[in-house]
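Reopening: 4-hydroxy-3-methylbut-2-enyl diphosphate reductase still failing for me.
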Amino acid sequence: MPETKSVVVAAPRGYCAGVDRAVITVERALDVYGPPVYVRKQIVHNRHVVEDLEARGAIFVEELDEVPTGSTVVFSAHGVSPAVHAEAEARGLKTIDATCPLVTKVHHEAKRFAGQGVQILLIGHAGHEEVEGTTGEAPEHIQLVQHPSDVDGVDVADPDKVAWLTQTTLSVDETAETVTRLRERFPNLIDPPSDDICYATQNRQQAVKQIARHSDLVIVVGSQNSSNSVRLVEVALEAGAKASYRVDNASEIDPSWLVGVNSVGVTSGASVPDDLVQGVLDYLQSQGFPAAVEERLTEESLTFALPPELRKDLRARR
Ligand code: SF4
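Support: Ran it again with your exact input. Result attached.
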């Protein structure tokens, strides 16, 4: 007798409070100021979201020197360093800061530790915009630690004045391993006041672990440059999924992945609109799989107010 096929979709998945706020910020900025509105870097790491906002009149740039003087520019959810704020001011740009408040919290922690003369070991990925922004708060005091294996190479002036911070979108388990190794080297290692890996990252990793345990295949919807989406694939494999792949949308699913597969789990990163997940579920149904059943780990209710500079201009229009 053939085995029964099943599709389980994880919850929470997709948009987090910081991404929701950042995307709405660009939409409202386009309403208030009219196109074009410039956005430094991808507002969130999702190709579809960026293309959709481009179609509405947003112009994405890598650096501020691409923004004409006097224009409005939005800073992405990943945050920027003080040097970028200073450059915008010097260039006479109107800025709207869509940095996620949970990233801003890490910036404040970095400034506070640096102000106390504490050396900061920032666990994160080189080149990620969030890491560049946080490092820019106190470049003289911050060293990047990318993997547990980097710990042996860390060099600090005073081993009793060392703290750790993290990027918000890391693997919870791998970060715990890095911190354990850091504490073995620096027994007086100072902890951040609260967890830097954000609630959305943690919830999505826990939820994918739950579905991975009983999935032959886990499909993660998310872009290649989305740190938290890439982590979800790693977490699914570590939790027991026989295979796991990341796709930007349903068209990237290779039909060979489904051969011999009975149970499919589906989830998405924090920057992914849910219609892309629905596209994957529709595709699976077209391939003979049943409608998906949602497996929910927890409810999320956090929301963030829009940036104050935008709220002020929205009020003035009423
Ligand atoms: S993943 Fe976390 S830190 Fe990043 S935007 Fe979302 S809520 Fe903010």
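The mean pLDDT is 97. If you still see a failure, please send the error message rather than a screenshot.
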